[in-house]
Design goal:
The complex is a heterodimer of chains A (115) and B (114).
Chain A (H helix, E strand, L loop, with lengths): L3 E2 L4 E5 L4 E7 L4 E9 L5 E8 L4 E4 L2 E6 L4 E6 L8 E9 L8 E3 L3 E6 L1
Parallel strand pairs in A: 2-11
Antiparallel strand pairs in A: 1-3, 3-8, 4-5, 4-9, 6-7, 7-8, 9-10, 9-11
Chain B lengths: L3 E4 L2 E4 L5 E7 L5 E8 L3 E10 L2 E4 L6 E3 L9 E3 L8 E8 L9 E2 L3 E5 L1
Parallel strand pairs in B: 2-11
Antiparallel strand pairs in B: 1-3, 3-8, 4-5, 4-9, 5-6, 7-8, 9-10, 9-11
The chains are: A mainly beta (115), B mainly beta (114).
């Protein structure tokens, strides 16, 4: 059974510092990995998706890396801003044979960027 | 509006009552999902559907019923609500099983069962 872990559960940084968020998973046979952002009381917003054949994906200040063999992904957010304060979730998708090729989520990292 | 909408956004009900949460998507995505989000448990899959008239159980299906007569709608029914079903419910959709395809989420329904 796939298990996804995000450590730390919470993180506080001063504005301008780079953010590094970690995600680890136990079964390396993944189809893809998706990073989401969730603001309090809101739904999940997709940030980046990395296919299993990719090593990294970039969008603006966000960069996500994937190392399937070690079961790890890292989300980097450059030059953090107070508006980056949110909970960040990673989720992995198994292959087509898995139930609905469903996403398995980590517990999230709650980020606070202090002005 | 384009995307995924959920209704109601907030619902308070009593133990034993039947409740239906609605989910509508405008993309004609094949896959639709229902998750619940609880403190300490994260997001857990309740039911999913690969296409109209095709549904299957996820991790925590007990006490829930789904149907999908039309591609764009995927209602979730709690047949006899219990306090343990107090949660935030998210509907999601994805176009196909392809590796490039992202999953998108609705805004959620906060359900309280008294």
């Amino acid at each position: 059974k796939q298990e996804v872990t995000q450590i730390p559960a919470a993180l506080s940084v001063p504005e301008g510092e780079n953010l590094v968020l970690n995600c680890s998973f136990t079964d390396s046979a993944i189809y893809n990995l998706q990073w989401f952002r969730q603001d309090p009381g809101k739904g999940l917003t997709s940030l980046l998706l990395i296919q299993s054949s990719q090593r990294e994906q970039t969008s603006g200040r966000l960069n996500a890396s994937l190392d399937k063999s070690s079961g790890r992904s890292t989300l980097y957010i450059a030059a953090s801003q107070p508006g980056d304060s949110a909970t960040y979730l990673c989720a992995v998708r198994q292959g087509l044979r898995a139930a609905g090729n469903k996403l398995t989520f980590g517990g999230g990292t709650r980020v606070l960027v202090k002005p | 509006d384009a995307g995924i909408t959920q209704s109601p956004r907030y619902k308070i009900t009593e133990t034993g009552r039947q409740v239906t949460l609605m989910c509508h998507q405008t993309w004609s995505h094949s896959y639709m999902f229902w998750y619940r989000q609880d403190l300490g448990h994260g997001l857990r899959l309740i039911y999913y559907s690969a296409a109209a008239d095709i549904t299957d159980k996820g991790e925590v299906p007990d006490g829930y019923v789904v149907s999908r007569s039309k591609t764009e709608n995927f209602p979730l029914t709690l047949e006899s609500a219990t306090r343990s079903q107090t949660s935030v419910y998210f509907c999601a959709s994805r176009t196909t099983g392809g590796e490039k395809n992202e999953q998108f989420f609705g805004p959620g329904t906060r359900l309280t069962v008294l």
